[in-house]
Design goal:
The structure holds 2 protein chains of 2 kinds.
Chain A lengths: L3 E12 L2 E12 L3 E6 L5 H8 L7 E6 L2 E2 L5 H7 E4 L11 H6 L14 H13 L15 H14 L4 E5 L7 H17 L3 E5 L3 H7 L2 E6 L2 E7 H4 L2 H8 L2 E5 L3 E5 L2
Parallel strand pairs in A: 3-8, 3-9, 6-7, 7-8
Antiparallel strand pairs in A: 1-2, 1-4, 4-5, 9-10, 11-12
Chain B lengths: L1 H22 L10 H35 L12 H14 L8 H21 E2 L2 E2 L1 H25 L4 H9 L7 H20 L1 H8 L2 H6 L4 H23 L5 H13 L3 H25 L8 H24 L2
Antiparallel strand pairs in B: 1-2
Classes of the chains: A alpha/beta, B mainly alpha.
């Protein structure tokens, strides 16, 4: 059985003449844990937005389970891919429960009320992310860590085989960063959800992801087993910093 | 279940205010003689029904605009859309086009839609709408429309009183034949907005976020803008510009029931009705037997409310 969930071929995205990403080719296997690393402006978010069909690539092909991305209706795609964004701006008050329930929208028709199965899936998702006790709290009153857990619960409620995350932990302290990564590992193992996460923290990428995509100036320069990719030479090439990998688990960056 | 009890209470309040609107005024109609019956049937009843329809339509439009523009300060009046509609109506009157292209209502709608297009063009940065620019665009459009309408009034003095009616809003000319048209458009408009309530909720969490939830954001925005602007065009062409209803009512409702549009819309219907009926009663009794334009009453309440909201929102607007 083919285990490929996502295929990206020769993907490019230009804004006028400027190449944001160029000729990116890779594929993801079902149940994998993938991290995406690279400097700011290396095209990570553009890649994520192309895969989730938020932006239309200039050229190239994206296939999900062998089917072209442009053949998916917005609802059908939302049943395959869920996204957790880095910034969540809430000018309006919703309860955490209402936000997670939005994850069920791809399964609901216009005007359809929340069904019993929607309610139980939302409860399960919130229990898994330890947010059920926050269900009646306003989304505006949650801490950064709590908010990201709620947003992950919303993605979980969509029951998608693939979850994309755009730097979900970059504004959190180290304890909450680790909590979120542990949660994602749990989701990856228990639900067999493929995780595709943009990370700035290389140690966390090394600790949690099986495979890594490294982007530089819009090109995919390395793709493979995380332990092979995140070595001293590649980190120097990607980020122009001196680094040391200790016991294959921790990365120490030396200040120049 | 709780909501239904609230709807009943609010429904009774609406009926009570309608009753008050019909029977309380500068002329005593409680003796039910021929003259009183004429006033009730031909003047006051159509007027309170028009109030109820416009109130519901304007309040729901306000909540729809706030969702579409992802901005709690949006309202068809503040964004200049109502002024645009009144300019369209004025042009139709001055040029004698009242029987061309659905008459005054058609022109009001076209100009309202044109205004929406202009403010979106001004305030768009990429696929985002800039909040401060959006409000400034609306305010500038209001200035421009006011200037053009003043010129039209001077140029076409015989139509001055009609045009003043459009710019200040009034329920005094309401007739049963008009009510049917307003009823149909308000009903359809509210129904469409209610159908997309869940999608509007998702849009309130951000465009990209809504897209990733499977919402066809562009299509939803177009449909909602089209139908809410159609409602505005029709309401303005029959009752003139009545400001701030769409700002005040959804705000108060949101404080009561939260941001879920599935609840905001039905509650806004009642809220809009109550607000308009109160404003209409005030407009008739404050300086009785003379009458104030209802638009000046809603603005008298609405403008300080807007300033208060702006004061509270300044941190969000200037991060």
């Amino acid at each position: 059985m083919d285990k490929t969930i996502l295929e990206v071929k020769d993907l490019s995205y230009f804004v006028r003449e400027k190449k944001i990403i160029e000729d990116i080719t890779f594929s993801l296997q079902k149940g994998g844990f993938y991290s995406v690393v690279g400097t700011n402006g290396s095209g990570k978010t553009t890649l994520l937005k192309s895969i989730s069909n938020i932006i239309e690539p200039t050229k190239g092909k994206i296939k999900i389970n062998g089917k072209n991305l442009n053949k998916f209706s917005p609802k059908l795609l939302a049943k395959e891919i869920s996204v957790v964004w880095q910034h969540n701006e809430f000018l309006f008050d919703f309860s955490a429960f209402q936000i997670v329930m939005m994850g069920r929208m791809p399964y609901q028709k216009l005007l359809q009320a929340d069904s019993k199965s929607d309610l139980s899936i939302v409860e399960q998702s919130m229990n898994k992310t330890s947010t059920w006790h926050l269900r009646n709290r306003s989304i505006k009153q949650l801490s950064g860590g709590e908010l990201q857990r709620v947003m992950i619960a919303r993605a979980l409620a969509g029951q998608t085989p693939l979850m994309l995350l755009d730097e979900p932990i970059s504004s959190l302290d180290i304890k909450h960063q680790l909590d979120i990564m542990e949660l994602l590992r749990k989701i990856n193992k228990e639900n067999n959800t493929t995780i595709f996460i943009i990370l700035h923290n290389l140690s966390l990428a090394l600790k949690y992801s099986d495979n890594t995509l490294a982007l530089k100036e819009g090109r995919l320069v390395h793709f493979g087993n995380t332990k092979d990719i995140l070595n001293k030479e590649n980190i120097k090439e990607l980020f122009d910093v001196e680094a040391e990998v200790i016991d294959g688990e921790n990365i120490i960056i030396h200040h120049q | 279940m709780k909501d239904i009890i609230w709807y009943c209470i609010l429904g009774f309040l609406v009926l009570f205010l309608m009753f008050l609107g019909v029977f309380w005024g500068s002329v005593d109609v409680m003796n039910f003689d021929e003259n009183s019956l004429y006033i009730i049937q031909k003047i006051r009843l159509p007027r309170v029904i028009m109030c109820v329809l416009c109130g519901a339509g304007l309040a729901v439009c306000g909540s729809a605009y706030q969702a579409i523009f992802q901005n709690p300060l949006s309202d068809p009046y503040i964004l200049g859309v109502s002024s645009g509609a009144s300019l369209g109506a004025s042009i139709a009157i001055v040029l004698g086009l009242e029987s061309v292209f659905f008459g005054v209502g058609g022109f009001a709608f076209l100009f309202a839609l044109l205004t929406v297009w202009i403010i979106i063009r001004i305030a768009s940065v990429g696929n985002k709408l800039h909040t401060t620019t959006l409000l400034l665009a609306g305010i500038s459009i209001n200035f421009l429309m006011a200037a053009i309408i003043s010129i039209l009034m001077v140029v076409s003095q015989e139509n001055m009183s009609k045009i003043i009616f459009w710019t200040m809003g009034s329920m005094s000319g309401s007739k049963f034949s008009d009510i049917w048209i307003v009823l149909i458009f308000v009903f359809i408009g509210i129904a469409v907005i209610r159908i997309y309530a869940k999608e509007l909720n998702a849009i309130l969490t951000g465009t990209d976020s809504a897209k990733s939830l499977g919402v066809n954001v562009e299509k939803t925005k177009k449909i909602i803008l089209l139908f809410s602007t159609l409602m505005i065009g029709v309401i303005v062409s029959y009752c003139g510009v009545i400001g701030f209803v769409g700002l005040i009512v959804p705000h108060i409702i949101r404080l009561m029931v939260g941001s879920d549009n599935r609840r905001i819309i039905p509650f806004s219907i009642f809220g809009g009705m109550i607000f308009m009926l109160l404003a209409d009663i005030l407009s008739r009794v404050l300086i009785a037997p003379s009458e104030l334009p209802i638009g000046s009453i809603t603005s008298l309440i609405g403008a300080p409310f807007f300033i208060y909201l702006l004061y509270n929102a300044k941190k969000q607007l200037n991060p």
